[in-house]
Design a protein that fits this description.
Elements: H1 2-10, H2 12-18, H3 21-42, H4 48-86, H5 104-116, H6 120-125, H7 127-163
Helix pairs in contact: 3-4, 4-7
């Protein structure tokens, strides 16, 4: 059992996922979208109708947060940080690191390839770029999941609940 855990922890793919803010947040939000409604449904102290309503509402909330995060926050902040750095606005002394890459996605593919090939020296060379992309993801995550996603969810939850017949429109 311990050997299996050690093998899993040492797996380069797992390490890559764990080091990515985007992957970590998508996994966390996905687990919340499944876990929270499940725990609500298992609660024996709540009426069945209330459990169903609360579980569906939580699922919709987490789902819209995940969609907002993937569709808006990640692309804007990750690519935005890369473009600012590419123009010398964030990493003034390291703009040469960007000359081989047209965009963020191209850089990330190259970085993934270097990781798979275990080219540590070259990975260290690009550490400021990777760090900047992750910094953009973190800033986007904080702002997006704390401010943007809840607003998007608030606008969508009640119309969806009404469409499912779980809520009546108030006049």
């Amino acid at each position: 059992m311990i050997t299996a855990i050690q093998t899993a922890i040492a797996n380069p793919a797992l390490n890559s996922i764990a080091q990515s803010t985007t992957s970590a947040l998508m996994i966390e939000t996905g687990l919340k979208a499944v876990g929270r409604p499940s725990f609500i449904l298992m609660d024996k102290d709540i009426s069945p109708q209330t459990k169903k309503y609360a579980a569906v509402k939580e699922l919709i909330y987490q789902g819209t947060c995940l969609i907002a995060y993937m569709a808006l926050i990640v692309p804007v902040f990750k690519r935005g940080a890369f473009k600012l750095a590419q123009k010398g606005k964030l990493l003034k002394n390291d703009t040469h690191l960007f000359k081989d890459f047209k965009n963020c996605d191209e850089f990330l593919k190259h970085h993934k390839k270097l990781s798979a090939e275990d080219k540590t020296a070259e990975l260290e060379k690009y550490a400021p770029v990777k760090g900047l992309i992750e910094f953009g993801n973190i800033i986007g995550s904080v702002l997006g999941l704390a401010m943007i996603a809840p607003q998007v969810s608030h606008v969508t939850i009640h119309p969806i609940l009404r469409a499912l017949g779980m809520e009546k429109k108030e006049h």
